[in-house]
Amino acid sequence: TTAPLVLGIETSCDETGVGIVRGSQLLANTVASSMDEHARFGGVVPEIAARAHLEAMQPTILAACDEAGVTLADIDAVAVTAGPGLAGALMVGVGAAKGLAASLGVPLYGVNHLVGHVAADALDAASIELPTVALLVSGGHTSLLHVRDLTEDVELLGETIDDAAGEAFDKVARLLGLAYPGGPAIDRAAVDGDPDAIRFPRGLTLPKYREKHRFDFSFSGLKTSVARWVEREQAAGREIPLADVAASFREAVVDVLLTKALDACEHTGTRRLLLGGGVVANARLREVAAKRCADAGVELRIPPLALCTDNGAMIAGLGSLAIAAGYEPSPADFGADSTLDV
Ligand code: KG4
Ligand code: ZN
């Protein structure tokens, strides 16, 4: 028997993603992004994102079918991100998924966005190797998960208590006069910079936080610290060494992300670390992750970038796993939950 053909819909942030999979076979991964519309605001504007999803939804579904070489009538099940994410954005996806599933007469599965990021690895590797620690870093979330089973044993070890890592890149880029999105701009600015030029704070790493916030993150203090440093230099009439500031800021983010991720591996006795989310594009993060994982004897898994950034294929992949595990479809009246737990 062949696995069911599953269409997945993702709208938790600013990407309208539609993916189609059969089992762990990736057939389509189509994404429309409203990123450009948010650029002049320096961050994702929820209302704009929701409206953009509404406009992009139908064309993206049809484009995904085209890419997979199937028609809507071939779809056996629909999966959709139920949360966490931006409430209005999620509602557009859940509404579209409900309409689609009802009209096709197929089951609908509401799934968790963060677990979807982990499921993305199954589409790359054909089967996912568990257990794993997963570090998920994007403009909307920064979370550390311990995953023993994708559908029934996912533990949230920690998350950001203020800004997401990608958000920190976007905000610091803005205060340095760099373009949006800030991650790629800071990566470029940092190329010839000295990562040790300025010692910016590593949030929540002091021993006093070990009890309550061992695996949590905080980036808003870092952002403020960069802002104060730049103000002081300007007030003293000195020119801002952009490359050094960018490299030192980036180093602080990367250092704290990987220190906590590898501490989580040690704490849970896990010899595998999976990265997901748009910040995974960061050149320094990839470099330091490779080095520290090798030193610690931890296997590092990084899916291709198109499966790391928000996408519908990972949601279809997780739906597919839920079906294989024998889960019941979501009840007809399920809603979008912006703070959905793993
Ligand atoms: O997963 P993603 O595409 O979706 C959203 O969260 O919307 O992630 C986008 C985030 C943005 O905050 C962007 O600045 C960040 O990922 N990002 C990066 C890099 N490329 C994108 N952050 C650091 N370095 C990069 N090279
Ligand atoms: Zn995401």
From TrEMBL:
Chief localisation class: cytoplasm
Domain Gcp-like: 25-316
Keyword Oxidoreductase: no
PROSITE patterns linked: GLYCOPROTEASE (PS01016)
GO biological process, one term: tRNA threonylcarbamoyladenosine modification
Key words, A-Z: Acyltransferase, Cytoplasm, Iron, Metal-binding, Transferase, tRNA processing
Reaction equation(s) it catalyzes: L-threonylcarbamoyladenylate + adenosine(37) in tRNA = N(6)-L-threonylcarbamoyladenosine(37) in tRNA + AMP + H(+)
GO cellular-component term (any): cytoplasm
Molecular-function GO terms, alphabetical: iron ion binding; tRNA N(6)-L-threonylcarbamoyladenine synthase activity
Binding residues for substrate: 136-140, 170, 183, 187, 282
PANTHER family noted in UniProt: TRNA N6-ADENOSINE THREONYLCARBAMOYLTRANSFERASE (PTHR11735), TRNA N6-ADENOSINE THREONYLCARBAMOYLTRANSFERASE, MITOCHONDRIAL (PTHR11735:SF6)
NCBIfam families in alphabetical order: gcp_kae1, T6A_TsaD_YgjD
Protein name from the UniProt record: tRNA N6-adenosine threonylcarbamoyltransferase
Organism expressing this protein natively: Agrococcus casei LMG 22410
Phylogenetic lineage: Bacteria, Bacillati, Actinomycetota, Actinomycetes, Micrococcales
Gene that this polypeptide is encoded by: tsaD
